[in-house]
Amino acid sequence: MIRSSRKITMGVAFSMVGIVVALAVHVLFAGQAQPGEKSPADVEPVPALTPYIDAHTHFDQHDADGAIRAALAALGRQNAAKILLLMPPDTFDHPGHFDAEVILAAAKKYPNKLAVLGGGGTLNAMIQQSVASGNAGPEVQRKFKDRAEELLREGVVGFGEMAAEHFDGATPYQYAPADHPLFLLLADIAAQHNVPIDLHMEAVPETMPLPAGLKSPPNAPQLHENITAFERLLAHNSRAKIIWAHAGADGTGYRTPDLCRRLLQAHSNLYMEIKTDPLSPGKNYPLADGKLKPEWLKLFQDFPDRFIIGTDQHYPEPKGSQQRWQTVVLLFNQLPSDLRRKIGTENVLHIYGMPAASSSNVANK
Ligand SMILES: [Zn+2]
Ligand SMILES: [Zn+2]
Q1: Which of 3, 111, 136, 267 could join 40 via S-S bond, C-beta 3.0 to 4.6 A?
Q2: Is 70 a member of any domain?
Q3: Range of the domain at 304
Q4: Ligand 2 centroid to 167 CA: how many Å?
Q5: How far is the CA of 217 from the centre of ligand 2 (A)?
Q6: Does residue 363 form part of some domain?
Q7: What is the whole-number distance in angstroms between the Cα of residue 245 and the centre of ligand 1?
Q8: Does the global pTM surpass 0.85?
Q9: How far is the CA of 49 from the centre of ligand 2 (A)?
Q10: Res. 228 pLDDT band, cuts 50 70 90
């Protein structure tokens, strides 16, 4: 839609509200286009006012080098200090599953700019396999632990993306109780090595039918209540840092600021990533006409040490569509500067145990 006409692009740009947004958005006219060439007019990207780390992105596993080039090129455009790359949560039944090995070697050449989480294509698949078979016995646990420790030796900085409740999309529908023995084991391994677990879990505070608009199959017709099990995981090992991905991208209607607040209050090892995708805003979107809603701002202000940015951006960026990172940055730019510093960089360095020096380009400008 955006690329179909310059007028539409301008309309999108000018419909955004908020002083920061209004001042920062500039429309580029497609004067440079070659005659006869279809020229999508672009909205000039608006960078973050101060540096931030994007702690949740994905990439093209068939072209790791291209993905790395795209992510590195994006840093300056976004004023991002660092980008963390994750594997999608997957199953062994899905033919496309892959894990950190496809990109680790290439990413490790840029330790100050890129880092990789692992386990989405193997550890998560092992949990799915164990849920299906009902076998979480000693042999299954030993193999799981071996694989987790192998990933750590290879250089992953955390485990992700893991899934407890994930709708069908690029990867199959997945459900696993968050207090499954392998999740508890992973929490212990994560705590021992001071790395976090990045968890995708649609919020389901009570058993409910699949939300309208989603198909079953492939999704389950009925969703399991999952907050109780999630709280058991959080309580299992208070030194295990759990990042609940996708605050601001709610697929069930229950990932409210109130639920986030209650869980953050109850569990000091819980962290959350902020994601806003205007193409798929979900049911508790933090923005109204581009402006951050007061209840979300209050939540960020009341828990300034517990939120980070995790845009779910894909590299290379999909062509012709709005990029996920941009809307999150427009939200980020509305935060007070002290909160921007924490959410942008400090909290990520704390959660990942990264020395501040490892992000030497983290400096206000
Ligand atoms: Zn996810
Ligand atoms: Zn993701």
Answers
A1: 3
A2: yes
A3: 54-354
A4: 12
A5: 22
A6: no
A7: 6
A8: yes
A9: 24
A10: very high
Burial class (CB in 10 A: 0-12, 13-18, 19+), 208: middle
Of the chain, the percentage scoring pLDDT greater than 90 comes to 84
Both structure tokens of 10: 């301008």
Ligand closest in space to the Cα of 313? 2
Asked if 40 and 181 sit in the same domain, the reply is no
pLDDT at position 29: 31
Question: Rounded to the nearest whole angstrom, what is the distance from the C-alpha of residue 129 to the centroid of ligand 1?
Answer: 19
**Which ligand is in closest contact with the Cα of 58?**
2
User: Does 172 lie in the same domain as 81?
Assistant: yes
Mean pLDDT (the chain) is 89
CA of 59 to the centre of ligand 2 (A): 10
Query: How many structural domains is the chain composed of?
Result: 2
- Residue 42 is predicted with a pLDDT of 60
Ligand having the closest approach to the CA of 201: 1
Is residue 360, in this structure, part of any structural domain at all?
no
Distance 182 CA to ligand 2 centre (A): 20
Q: Are 299 and 260 in contact (CB under 8 A)?
A: yes
Tell me how far the alpha carbon of residue 86 lies from the centroid of ligand 2, in angstroms. 7
| CA 337 to ligand 2 centroid distance, Å | 27
pLDDT at 356: 76
Residues 160 and 27 in one domain: no
Tokens standing for 81? Answer: 């200090």
pLDDT tens profile 294-350? 999 999 999 999 999 999 999 999 998 889 999 999 999 999 999 999 999 999 999
Q: Give 21-25 contacts, CB < 8 A, sequence gap 24+.
A: 21/46, 21/290, 21/291, 21/330, 21/333, 24/330, 24/333
Distance CA 89, CA 156 (A): 15
Amino acid found at 127: I
Clarify whether residues 92 and 127 are in a common domain: yes
| Mean local confidence (pLDDT), 102-123 | 98
Q: Does residue 362 belong to any structural domain of this protein?
A: no
List for the chain the helix, strand, coil content (%; round to 5). 40, 15, 45
Please indicate whether residue 64 or residue 40 has the higher confidence score (pLDDT): 64
- Assigned token pair, 61: 């596993």
**Nearest ligand for residue 57 CA:** 2
Q: Which ligand is nearest to the CA of 324?
A: 2
Sorting pLDDT into bands at 50, 70 and 90, what band is 357? low
pLDDT class for 355, splitting at 50, 70, 90? confident
